[in-house]
Amino acid sequence: MHGTDPGGHGREHPDGDAAGPWLATDRHRFNAREHTPDSVTRTLTPDTVRRLAEGSTAADVPGPVTLLTAWTAVLHRHTQQRDLLIGLDPASFTDAAAPAGNTPDAATVPLRVRLRPDAAFADERARIHTAVTEALARDPGGTPATDPRAVAGRAPAPSLRHGTWDVALTLDSGPVHTHLTLHYNASLFTRATAQWILGHCATLLTAAVATPGTPVRELPVQDEPAPAPWRLPVPDGYRPPEPARRGEGLVDRFRRTAAAHPARLAVTGPQGSLTYAELDRVSDTVARRLRRTAGPGDRVALLYGHDVGAVAAIWAVLKTGAAYVPLDPRQPDGRLTRLLTDADCTTLVCDPALADRAGSLARGARTVPADPFDIAVTSPAPPEAPTPGDPDAPAYLLHTSGSTGRPKAVVQSHANVLAHTLAYADRLRIGPRDHIPLLARYTFDAAVMDLYAALLTGATLHVEDPVATAPELRERLRRAATTVLHTTPTLFRHLVGDLPEEGGPDPAFASVRAVVLGGEEAGQHDLRRFLAAFGRNAALVNGLGPTECTLIAQYLAGATDLGGTALPVGHPVEGISLRLLDEEGRGTELLGELEVRGERVAHGYWNEPDATAAAFGTGADGTRHYRTGDLARRRADGALVFAGRKDRQIKLRGHRIEPGEIEAALRSHPTVAEAVVAVDTRAPAPRLVGYVTPATGFPPDTGELLAYLARTLPDHAVPWRIVALDRLPLGPTGKVDRARLPAPGELPSDAAAAPTTPLERTVAQLWCRVLGTDSADLHGNFMAAGGDSVRLLTLLGDVRRELDAEVPLLEFLAAPTIDTLVKLIERET
């Protein structure tokens, strides 16, 4: 009996029947130009063989049906599909003299199986027996492999011998032993993976024939993988950070670190530099100012750009015992006001240059301007402030987008941040000799890993703005003598994208010993660029860590991973356990939603009891857990691979985006009745598209809506285009049928404005080159079309070199379109 064909995942047959199960392959299908047959075999125990025969006889079903039922259960476990299409070898079921599941030949019978995981194995076996009988009655001889309609139009040649089946399972009974054999396409699967799948078949079959009354979903396929050793090289002289002491919090550890390394450079950035002793003194001074309105149980907002002031302000707030709420001054005032109101902040600490804006945002909260370098110069050393005493108190509230359309704030404690930090620092071997660039802004969870890992181990933190050309950024990293580089894959691609793939490592990375990727999915291309640009002594670490539990999994990638279909996110880190859940939230082994378990899970979402209850919980053993919404699959080596999102949350250019927040903002406009946001994946860079229906007798002005969203949402959440429809397409259940949403440009009313003048066409060519697109809309938003701050600087640099025009960055950002850029160029020239 066969298993999977090379059809597309999730697609249906022309008649609407079941899709063939789609097993994840080790190698890309488009690289597998030839079918390479191979097989692996396992001998069943005499007890299993006896139970298989006795159980089949007692149930009055042929032995191959029992095997087929087990095979179907294994395929379901690997794919989480319940509606399956499997090819049958007719001889196995009709010729009593033939061994069960004979090696697949050139004729098969398609069998549709709708598995019920909650049903007992014996019940499913009976149902499948009926289905097999009916299928063989319809097509007793099987469909020849030369028939292009074989297997309901999916596979032109379904036999293993002739070419297109990915896997097939057979049972061969000899005079002494009975063998279970998995035939597989070695162009797609490694032998190790084939043996792994075969082991699942043998394990589940053994359990099923022993206890046929067990529900299918409860039959085991494998044990929980053993912890994987972490083999990142250890630098000479490295000493692991001391474990957290009982009751120790972030401030306690920082004071100990500052006392051990008072003269060492702690943090440096465009504003200047501070030693550990200076950073400790500056933050103590600001903390004393804050204590009139901030203390344990309070929230203090921070309004700083990406510089040393933000770092000093964080420590000042932590020293009061309050939790900090970071605000990004690049975001619209409307959003910042919502975050302040949501967090109920008592105080707002800001860069003095932002004091006027902070005052307008504060709305009753006390505003405290604080420049660390003014303090360092003018203030005497204050007496040491008392250390906050509760390590379980909140350290920060980091906002993400909520599916209800409201921002959600993740609450994390001092003790948990410290535990994550020490684990991250030890895994990356971070110590006083290291230089860590802080590329992520303090509003992102990625900054938590770098900021604390550096400043709680005696390393130097270099606050670097990634908004620079690739050569400029590489030069900054070289001057900083960077040793551990943590970045999103998008920024990593910018950093190395202009380097030749041949010619050896770039000198700018000579001091880098580890590159850590996170925040979005990394792939084979990133691994190839890493191997080309970095020295042989550098390591690439891919990983996964949601804001709700900073660090959960890591994977040490290398040349042996080349040629695969994905770059794993790896194995759980120390102190964390990971579980896969099926659609009903029950544990499963191979594919499902990723659940994090451990004491380091965040406390929940601030003032969001329903959202907290839906995502967080505590098990019977008292262990906290968090359902990430990320789907993951397990490989044969136990490593996890990211497999998309369970819900509608998406990631674009390193940003977590909830379409619900954008839809809620659109619906708040008086001209909009309904709104849906989708992702257009046809362009080289995925982009957001909004669809709206009118609330009045006139269609909404899509340009006005884009401007409205730009004043309300961060730029990465503003759609590339908004399409006005008379009504949204609905499916049979009354829900929006997203598959029927028209692509932008398909409607006459949605035609893009094409550049017409020579200057417009020239700018459009530069625009398309930077974004990697074929066409450009005169009024299309650069950021929404796939741009980011790095590509923005690249575009303006190209304009400067090729058109001899210096375009003011802030003026272009106010309306980043070709039309705006052309007007600014004409003004400057």
Q: Keywords, please?
A:
829 residues, alpha+beta, Rossmann fold, GMP Synthetase, Chain A, domain 3, five-stranded mixed sheet
Structure description:
This protein is an alpha+beta fold. Among the domains are: 2-218, 2-Layer Sandwich (Chloramphenicol Acetyltransferase); 275-382, Rossmann fold, CATH 3.40.50.980; 650-750, GMP Synthetase, Chain A, domain 3 (2-Layer Sandwich), CATH 3.30.300.30; 758-828, Non-ribosomal Peptide Synthetase Peptidyl Carrier Protein, Chain A, CATH 1.10.1200. Helices cover 32% and strands 21% of the residues. It is built from 23 helices and 34 strands. The longest helix has 20 residues, at 191-210. Residues 4-20, 95-106 and 144-163 have low confidence and may be disordered.
Question: Which helices and strands occur, and which strands form pairs?
Answer:
Elements (H helix, E strand, L loop, with lengths): L1 E3 L32 E7 L2 H14 L3 H17 L3 E6 L1 H5 L12 E8 L6 H18 L4 E2 L22 E7 L4 E8 L5 H20 L39 H11 L4 E5 L2 E4 H15 L8 E5 L4 H13 L2 E5 L5 H11 L3 E4 L4 H8 L3 E4 L2 H7 L15 E7 L7 E6 H14 L7 E4 L6 H11 L4 E4 L6 H10 L4 E4 L1 H8 L17 E4 L6 H10 L5 E6 L8 E5 L13 E2 L4 E5 L5 E2 L2 E7 L6 E2 L3 H7 E3 L5 E11 L5 E6 L4 E3 L2 E3 L1 H9 L4 E9 L6 E8 L7 H11 L8 E4 L33 H14 L17 H15 L5 H6 L3 H11 L1
Parallel strand pairs: 8-17, 10-11, 10-12, 12-13, 16-17, 18-19, 19-20, 33-34
Antiparallel strand pairs: 1-6, 2-7, 3-4, 4-5, 6-7, 8-9, 14-15, 15-26, 20-21, 21-22, 23-24, 23-25, 25-28, 27-28, 28-29, 30-31, 32-33
